[in-house]
Inverse folding.
């Protein structure tokens, strides 16, 4: 379950209360400091006696995903890194993350990625390549491998920028067909990470894949529609609203 970055409504034992979960929505790729701040807020909620166990259970799941990112980093086998190193024309423009996790670069060998966040990849590679090149100028971006399945134009695996909006990812896969957008969900193996109101809010609020704590192999799934167009208009508006941004993204 996902609790957004605006004010979070929970039901404690007795009366409702508001819990401010304050994370900057402009941080499309979370930094270590932002993740740590978010985790501390989650921990404060979990330590409070004011809220029910049902409310805390959802927060606990989110906290565990953030802690995993802080401990193990973001890069998993199958992810890719878009890479440019000034003056190094023999390097590929994208490299695939291998078991380790690590990447292997011609001339420079294996570079470990354990514990590295997507927000840290450019600095990390600059430091690593600095062992071989004096003052390297590095441009690097983490790309995320996700599965988009169900009622979309072109279901399959896609490698997309981690700062891509969830709604943009749907459009990359051909957009929703006769989908039941109310049933949109994100899965990791047999676990449902996000669904229902939380996921619909994430689409409307313009959350990125990184903000949703997605990792390689996660699946975005749209079931076939069982209702008419009118039951799907709110979610369709959220998806279509990103089309112009998506076009600009790929023509720049």
């Amino acid at each position: 379950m996902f609790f957004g970055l605006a004010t979070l409504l929970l039901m404690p034992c007795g009366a409702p209360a508001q819990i401010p979960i304050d994370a900057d929505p402009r941080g499309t790729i979370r930094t270590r400091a932002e993740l740590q701040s978010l985790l501390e807020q989650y921990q404060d909620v979990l330590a409070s006696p004011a809220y029910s166990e049902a409310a805390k259970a959802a927060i606990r799941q989110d906290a565990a995903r953030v802690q995993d990112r802080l401990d193990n980093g973001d890069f998993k086998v199958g992810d890719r890194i878009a890479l440019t190193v000034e003056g190094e024309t023999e390097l590929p423009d994208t490299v695939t993350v291998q078991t380790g996790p690590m990447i292997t670069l011609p001339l420079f060998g294996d570079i470990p990625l354990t514990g590295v966040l997507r927000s840290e990849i450019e600095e990390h590679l600059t430091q690593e390549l600095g062992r071989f090149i004096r003052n390297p100028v590095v441009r690097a971006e983490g790309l995320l491998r996700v599965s988009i399945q169900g009622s979309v134009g072109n279901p399959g695996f896609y490698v997309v920028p981690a700062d891509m909006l969830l709604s943009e990812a749907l459009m990359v896969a051909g957009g929703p067909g006769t989908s039941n957008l109310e049933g949109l969900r994100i899965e990791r193996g047999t676990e449902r990470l996000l669904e229902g109101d939380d996921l619909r809010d994430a689409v409307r609020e313009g959350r990125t894949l990184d903000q949703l704590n997605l990792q390689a192999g996660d699946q975005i799934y749209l079931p076939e529609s069982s209702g008419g167009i009118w039951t799907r208009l709110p979610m369709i508006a959220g998806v279509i609203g990103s089309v112009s941004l998506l076009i600009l993204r790929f023509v720049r």
In short: The first helix runs from residue 32 to 47.
